[in-house]
Amino acid sequence: MIKVAMRIAYYGGEFFGFQRQKDKITICGVLEEVFRSVGIFDVCMGSGRTDKGVHASAQVISVSIPEFHRDLQRLKQLLNVKLYPWIKIKQIWQVENEFHVRFSVKRRGYCYVLSQKYSPFLALFSHFYPLKNPFLVQESLDIFRGVYDFSAFMKNGGSGCEGSVREIFHTKLLKRGEFYLISFWGNGFLRSQIRLMVGFLLEIDRGNLGIEDLKKQLLGEKIFSIPAPPNGLFLSRVDY
């Protein structure tokens, strides 16, 4: 057997999240069904889970494949024919047996897309919200940087891993044409953490909350806990 990693992209709107669930269509479930059709029977593991409706442009998975699939370029082409149109394998490479697709990650990047233009053709991949005060949003974003217990920015049900302390290395608000991109880089994120942070930022932009409220919630006082919609969120990068 050969252990490989695959970098994949997917449209999350067609799935009930990444993780396999009984009687639900999930990314992992579809991948394993397609893998079985070409003689790959190993369990699929991902670098992290994405919630229902959340997209990815650079999720990473690992799986062990039989020796007869040693031609990785041909395997990628074969799988992409079967995965079209909602999932695409962008890259396959061989890894050491010690490689762990989740615990070997050094940092993860997420991007939330805010559309400044109302259009039904953009709604699947962005959240329509005309930003009023980008400078205030960037100032608020800067406060997330550092090591915090993010339990007040976590959806009930936990994160699937121990603890709620995470480190955010970098945050940025970028303007690109008709879109604002809110990016977060960290060593890991809790369940719905990004969407809850974005939801808080938008309340600050609306004038309903302030920076002091944000600081209080980072210290554990739950003030606002309505997440931004999932359609604007992308898992955009995973580094090892």
Automatic annotation (TrEMBL):
GO terms for biological process: tRNA pseudouridine synthesis. HAMAP family: TruA. The keyword Cell membrane does not apply. NCBIfam families: hisT_truA (TIGR00071). Keywords: Isomerase, tRNA processing. Substrate binds at Y110. Its EC number is 5.4.99.12. This is tRNA pseudouridine synthase A. InterPro entries: PsdUridine_synth_cat_dom_sf, PsdUridine_synth_TruA, PsdUridine_synth_TruA_a/b_dom, PsdUridine_synth_TruA_C, TruA/RsuA/RluB/E/F_N. Homodimer. Belongs to the tRNA pseudouridine synthase TruA family. It catalyses: uridine(38/39/40) in tRNA = pseudouridine(38/39/40) in tRNA. GO terms for molecular function: RNA binding; tRNA pseudouridine(38-40) synthase activity. Formation of pseudouridine at positions 38, 39 and 40 in the anticodon stem and loop of transfer RNAs. Residues 9-103, 144-240 form the Pseudouridine synthase I TruA alpha/beta domain. The keyword Ribonucleoprotein does not apply. The active site is at D51. It is an enzyme of class 5 (isomerase). It comes from the Bacteria. Signal peptide: none annotated. It holds the Pfam family PseudoU_synth_1.
